[in-house]
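Researcher: Can you fold this with T5A in place?
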Amino acid sequence: MSGAFITVEGGEGAGKTTQIARLADWLRAAGETVVQTREPGGSAAAERIRALVLDPDLSGWTPASEALLMTAARCDHVDKLIAPARRRGEWVLCDRFTDSTRAYQGVMQGLGLGPIDRLEAMFLADFRPDLTLILDIDPDQGLSRMRARQDAETRYDRMDPEAHRAIREAFLGIAAADPERCVVLDASEDEERVAEAVRAAVAARFMVDADG
Ligand code: T5A
């Protein structure tokens, strides 16, 4: 195997971080080298931008400013971490990527998909994920998982329920428009069942043994 670039997407509390950790463990147990990362963030400079965009006290960004900040962070992340790891043939598992900009800034915040597509084409043409797993969950269930976790609130945790529903629909729309790349998984199941579905999707795409 020569690894792959896999992104995991979905609304708040869908279980992305949890499932990336489990998938990484499974791949490492099979002898693979895995890089786990996240967006916004993943490189030193991008983590600085993350602090800026998630700050609960900074709520005045326009959708365009936010999309540009996310893209600036992503360019640095790809350059410093993702592209080098892929050149070494490693697996890269990324918690959110361009589809989050589409869903949050493009659809939910109303910027539209055109500007996001153009930014991606201009700066990230070579770095489309090989596979995108969309963890689909009812926003109420996702948010109740987040509340149970009780960590620091980000600006996005203050969105109204309608915004969370728009994000869910946006991810389903992205998957429908790009079925070669995207697989939608039911994230409402318990952790183990979702992990099995994640492994099966990765195995099917990259022909690895899901039971291994
Ligand atoms: N954003 C991001 C944009 O607006 N534009 C962009 O371009 C990008 C890249 C990031 C925010 O930035 C926005 C989107 C986000 O709002 P974040 O803090 O990284 O903020 O938040 P999230 O990415 O949403 O990640 P979270 O950590 O908040 O949620 P996860 O990773 O989906 O969920 P996870 O795994 O942490 O699980 C949440 C809780 O549920 C439990 C876990 O143990 C945990 O307590 N859990 C389960 N419980 C029951 N059943 C299961 N199957 C479970 N799986 C996990």
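Model: Folded with T5A in place. Strands lie at 5-10, 34-38, 91-95, 131-136, 182-186.
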